[in-house]
Amino acid sequence: MTARAPAKVNVALRVGPPRPDGYHELATVFHALTLYEHVAATPGDGVSVSVEGPGAEDVPLDGRNLAARAATALASYAGVDAAVHLHLVKGVPVAGGMAGGSADAAAALVACNALWGTRLARHELHLLAAGIGSDVPFALLGGTAVGTGRGERLTPALSRGPYQWVLALADGGLPTPAVFAELDRLRAGARVGEPAVPDRVMAALRSGDPERLGAVLVNDLQAAACSLRPALARTLDVGHELGALGGVVSGSGPTCAFLARDAEHALDLAVGLTAAGVCRDVRRATGPAQGARVLG
Ligand code: C5P
After folding, report:
1. Which atom of ligand 1 approaches the CA of 180 most closely?
2. Which of 31, 53, 54, 273 fits a 20 to 30 Å CA distance from 280?
């Protein structure tokens, strides 16, 4: 049984103060992109994982693997034997701020649900997903959605698309907890209010106008990601100089996401970013993309 799940960018990511449980209250707009993780689930002995694709060597194969955790959680909830081999094919940059590991978990949930015939409903899968990681519920849902709480409480957003994106991949990953901790350090002493998605972001999404959306992209984690990885500021500058409608660090980084006017403009931007030598690699993708689904 093979399933796929999409990468995401956050077109808006507002971060509140740290909570007693160590998480931060978020107000975000997730937007799924046509970069996919594929997970093939076959009957196995216990839960085992193999990985192929760029960055595969950096993906843990043990109990830390989010796809393995998803399969184990589903089996325990449904009362079946956790017996599956999961083969992951990486299409999303590893540790890039695009929720590739979360997409693995979402794809594993729907693949195992089909393989084992457990027939859990979407809302049950959503609950399991939220227990695995903050971004896993959105990888199940896909499309464009407002996320609150840790990011796990989702409301689909009215959005016209498609939008053309160019992703500038960086060398090495940035650990999400370190980026949140850096944000807290940068904010030390400052009063931080409840986070909210700006109305202008929702209006831009409804308009379907990439110029409007590009002008309002916002990420509170960007300053922290750039503080830990100063080269990102240069990547963002070069994207703007090359005429991107907007550019933002994706999630906790280090991938930078740029919005283009159309497919031709996206190709020009991708070529320009590559020629400028400010990133390890580039990808083009469109959004919104469908959430996790079984391919058969
Ligand atoms: O939920 P997930 O395991 O993906 O989160 C990874 C880490 O990112 C958390 O342990 C926490 O340090 C940070 N985080 C946060 N606030 C959020 C989401 C993640 O501080 N809303």
Report:
1. 20
2. 31
